[in-house]
Automatic annotation (TrEMBL):
Keyword terms, alphabetized: Membrane, Transmembrane, Transmembrane helix
Pfam family name, one: DUF3618
InterPro entries the record matches: DUF3618 (IPR022062)
Entry keyword Membrane: yes
The protein's name: DUF3618 domain-containing protein
Native source species: metagenome
Length: 82
């Protein structure tokens, strides 16, 4: 009986430690600093090749073209409205 109780106590303690580690990991992942860092890394990976550290000109040109298109559309709409 004492051996079963000791085994149960150690199992509960192990479970408690695993849960604490999981909660710490989740708290770290949900931290605003971690989220911002993860997003910055994601954006950088979109514009810079991780292996060669060279810019991905195709993605850069797509974004630049989109920005120019939006600006032109806004200017045209503004001229039409006036």
């Amino acid at each position: 009986m004492a051996k079963e109780l000791s085994s149960l106590e150690s199992e509960i303690e192990e479970t408690r430690e695993r849960l604490a580690a999981t909660i710490d990991l989740l708290a770290h992942r949900a931290s605003p600093k971690t989220i911002v860092s993860r997003e910055i890394t994601s954006v950088k990976a979109h514009f810079v090749d991780a292996e060669t550290s060279r810019p991905r000109t195709d993605n850069i040109l797509k974004v630049a073209g989109g920005v120019v298109g939006v600006v032109v559309a806004l200017v045209l709409i503004r001229k039409i409205v006036r």
